[in-house]
Amino acid sequence: MASARTWIRFTRPFTLLPPGLGVVSGAITAWGSVWNPDPAHAITWAVVGTILLGTACAGLLNAGSNVINQIYDLEIDRINKPERPLITGAIGIPPAWRFAVVLYMAALLPTWLVVTWPETTLVAKFMAPLARHECIFIYALGTLFTFVYSAPALGRTKASTIGANLTIAIPRGLLLKVAGWSMVASIFHIEPWFIGGIFFLFLLGAASTKDFSDMPGDRLGGCRTLPIVFGVRTAARMVAPFFVLPWFLMPLGAYLPDPLAPEHAILTGNPVLLTGFGLGLALWGSYVVYLILRDPDALAESENHPSWTHMYLMMMVAQLGFAASYLL
């Protein structure tokens, strides 16, 4: 029987921080926006508890996604990741499936209790009308995307040149921010989708950085990733703009009027901070582009190319930047 440490390693815990941070950041932006339904903008135990619950569920959902991805990628991981528990035999396929089901249920069901103000008690949240339970639908959609990405019966977009990036960028970029927002305010405004759209565009290209070192196993598994289809050098040039251009939407959103509410900008946080973070991230992205294009072949030769590390760090700094821009 596998040890607790092995089961934890199976979930790839180092990947759980970005989604948790994304949810918290999304909730903070909603709290600091003009769309906060509580006119007092109070920080209550109900608000904090809801955000903590949603954050925990985001981590569990990501863990479940990691587990099923390893199940479906078994043959690919024999080449690319031979040290993983399913490959070494430390964990078997049937218990891995049971573990995934537990993780998905633990991630999805509690989000029924994520309901915004004025419902503040657990009973009120539980009994709220269906339309008030926006968060659980976002999480359910995110769950579906994890299976569409990995499962052949649902399309396995991981094997698709563009589909793979879309089914990473939509749940981990767009929906993640909207899910965090839904813990404090309604998602039926342009602002949360605009913010999510920035992260969607970033991940649409940046997510491909992991594909370069995985080419041998991906090729064997029939995955038509960008570097396999277009070659390393062309694929590197294709993903480079996504490290820079999305961040210019931050200063634009800070000053362009909301089409549905023109009395204020699309982004209702601190415009100076939003502009500063946006330009700073664009400069940072330009440096990452330099690292990528200086020696594109190194992307395929190194399992942990600096661009992969920078992608994660940029995501986390952007999350913190949005949170700060709506708090200060």
What is the C-alpha radius of gyration, as a whole number of Å? 20 Å
Cα separation of the termini? 50 Å
What share of the residues does DSSP label as strand, in percent?
under 5%
Going by CATH, the homologous superfamily would be UbiA prenyltransferase
The CATH topology name reads: Tetracycline Repressor, domain 2
Helical/strand content category: mainly alpha
Assign the CATH architecture.
Orthogonal Bundle
Would you mind describing this structure in some detail?
By secondary structure, the chain is mostly helical. It has one domain: UbiA prenyltransferase (Tetracycline Repressor, domain 2, Orthogonal Bundle), CATH 1.10.357. The chain is 65% helix and 2% strand. The chain has helices spanning 4-10, 17-32, 45-72, 74-80, 85-88, 93-108, 122-127, 134-150, 163-181, 190-206, 215-220, 226-230, 232-239, 249-255, 271-294, 297-301, 306-327; strands at 257-258, 261-265. Strands 1-2 form a two-stranded antiparallel ribbon. Strand 1 and strand 2 form a beta hairpin. The radius of gyration is 20 Å and the shape is globular. The relative contact order is 0.13. The model has no long low-confidence stretch (mean pLDDT 92).
